[in-house]
Amino acid sequence: MEKKEAYRHILPHFQKPGQAYFVTWLLKDAIPAKSLVRYTLQLKIINSQIDLFKTQTADQSVIDNLKIEYNLVRKKYIKAFHDQLDNARNPYIDLSRQENTQIIIQTLQYWEGEKLKNIAFSIMPNHVHWVFELFKTDKNGKPVFLQDILQSVKRFSAHKINKSECRQGALWQKESFDTTLRDENHMYYAVRYTLNNPIKAGLVSEWSNWPGTWNGYTDL
To answer: What is the pTM assigned to this prediction?
Structure first.
């Protein structure tokens, strides 16, 4: 089946080959299901309005204003999401346990040099931040899509961690939160946020002291 360059769950996702991304994904129960329902409902309503006005050939300015509103709500959603993640304690599976951290590091590095270039990552107790750049094509000339990479990484790491923790069932939340990095400035702030996340969460005073962080970005 041909891949789409945009798809949607709760949030929109864009996956043009050759792009750089800042991606966050989390344990299935890291955030209570109802905690962000207000923002989720707002996003769904605004998106439905955009789709409706598009079919009615409405004034483009109306659609543009709705898109601005959507992006504002999306930013609030993501901020609330990150704040709750950082404030959560004692996850049912601790990703910062040494064996689990090593599993995730090995998984993030699996496609290095073949489908992507790692730039930075931070493995927190209940979520993962990852900054990387996808190649346009793999060694066989096939386009590299974000959706495929995330499915591969989440599926493999879930299998290994479940085995390590002697458990079964879903490990990760289905939704991943990805941002396309527009330029070097955007990249800089994504990397800085990723590396400083353990400090923000009160886990260490220096990012380099957190075993789950890695930085390959030279301009920081």
So the answer is: 0.73
- Show me where the domains of the chain are located: 6-30+93-215, 37-86
Are 6 and 14 contacting, i.e. CB atoms less than 8 angstroms apart?
Answer: yes
Sequence-separated (6 or more) residues with CB below 8 Å from residue 99: 164
Q: How far apart are CA 23 and CA 108, in angstroms?
A: 12
Let me know: does 183 contact 145? Beta carbons within 8 Å: no
Q: Distance between CA atoms of 166 and 127, rounded to whole angstroms?
A: 20
Question: How far is Cα of residue 13 from the mean position of the Cα atoms in its chain?
Answer: 10
CATH match for 6-30+93-215 among 3.20.20.240, 3.40.50.1240, 3.40.50.300, 3.30.70.1290: 3.30.70.1290
How many Cβ atoms from other residues are within 10 Å of residue 77's Cβ?
19
> Could you give the 3-state DSSP secondary structure of residue 44?
helix
Name the band, by pLDDT with cuts 50, 70 and 90, for residue 86.
low
